[in-house]
Structures are given as structure tokens and as C-alpha cells.
Amino acid sequence: MTSPRKPGGSPESRAVFGGSGVAGFGEMFVVGIGVTLLSLPLVTLAPAFGAGVRHFRAHLDDEPDSIRLFALRGLQAVRSGWWFGAACAVVIALLALNAVGAAQGALPGGTVFAIISGGLAVVVAVAMLRTAALWTPGARWIDLWREGRGIVVDDPIGTSLVLVGLGVSATVVWMLPPLIVVAPGLVVVSLVGAERRRAATSSRRAA
Questions:
Q1: From 18, 61, 127, 191, which residue has the greatest number of CB atoms within 10 Å?
Q2: Mean per-residue pLDDT of the chain
Q3: pLDDT tens track for 179-200
């Protein structure tokens, strides 16, 4: 949530965590819980991350970031993007099931097919997340998808950051399962970092 900013705060501190590392760390937990609640139906996973990224960016930029506003943004994202979230969830689930089935010998292809299916599932998941990170109220998800899937390839370093975020989240949940409710906050932080890095790189190239 928005906290009082000291007039003398440095631009660097505001750019990182809204003037306070503790405040940013706490906001990551708030975002993680919010994204978890919004994505409980599973098919709303993509719009939930879209709202989470938008909220965390607002916090970093000293914009209004109340829980009420987060909820309103979440409802906006879900209303416009539930179909996109559903499509991604179905594709990822099918690929994951193929990977598990092949690994267990239930499908032909064995280990090779399992690796390919698992890899494709990760690619689709990352493309979904990078698409969600582009969301703003009123945006069309089909347009965001066209841009997001290209960013996965065009910005390999940013994509690597997102993969690291996913890996860290999975490790945290594996070590302490109850933290599954806040793990999405780690992914949101990686998405915001990837997008800000991409924007900064584009600005330098334009200059």
C-alpha cells in the first residue's frame, strides 16, 4: 500500500522500492496474496498476474496503490482476459500431462517426448507471463499476446529473469508449501524487473 514518502528520498531508492526496501518487500507479499486469490479459478491466472504487475509498478512509481484499487484492477483484468487465461491454462495443462505421461511410459516417445512437452509448457507459461506484464486497463489481450510472445525471443535476458523468478518461487514452495500464497509476488517482481530493463534498453538505443 501507499506509504508516506520522505521529501528528501533519493530517486534511486524510489525507483527500486518506492523509498524503502522494507516497504517494497512487504508490497511483494501483498501482491503475492492478491494474485493468489485472483487466480484461484486457475483460468484467471494470466489476468491475475497482469493486475499484480500493474499494482507493483504503481507502488514503485508513487502512484495510488491501495488494496481497493488492486481489487478493481484485478476485476478489470479478469473480465477482459479470462478467455486468454483459460486458453493458456488448457495448453499448459495438456503439455504438462503429456510430459508426465511420457516420463511414466504411458505415452510413446519416453524421455525425449517428456522433455519436449515439458519445455514447451515452460515456454507457453513464460510467454503468458510476459504478455500479462504488458497489461493496462482497456488493453486488448489478443494484441498483448502478439507483442508478448515476440518479447520472449527478442529479450532473452528479461526472459531469463522471469525463468529465475519462476525457479525461485518453485523452490520456495517446495521448501515451505504454505508460502504458495505469496510465491506469485516473486514472479511479479521478476516480471517488473524484466520490463523495466527492456524499457531502459530501448531508451538507450533510441538515444
A1: 191
A2: 87
A3: 998 899 999 999 999 999 999 8
The helix, strand and coil proportions of the chain, stated in percent and rounded to the nearest 5, come to 80, 0, 20
**Inter-residue contact 21 to 28 (CB < 8 Å):** no
Give the mean pLDDT of 27-44.
92
Is the Cβ–Cβ distance between 13 and 26 less than 8 Å? no
**Which one, of 85, 176, 174, 178, lies nearest residue 132 by Cα?**
85
- Is the separation of the CB atoms in 50 and 133 below 8 Å? yes
Residue 176 C-alpha cell reads as: 515451505
Q: How far apart are CA 207 and CA 202, in angstroms?
A: 9
Q: The dihedral of CA 180, 119, 51, 189: what is its sign?
A: positive
Write the DSSP symbol of residue 5: P
Q: Name the pTM for this structure.
A: 0.85
Secondary structure (DSSP) of 39-90: TTTSTTHHHHHHHHHHHHHHHHTT----HHHHHHHHHHHHHHHHHHHHHHHH
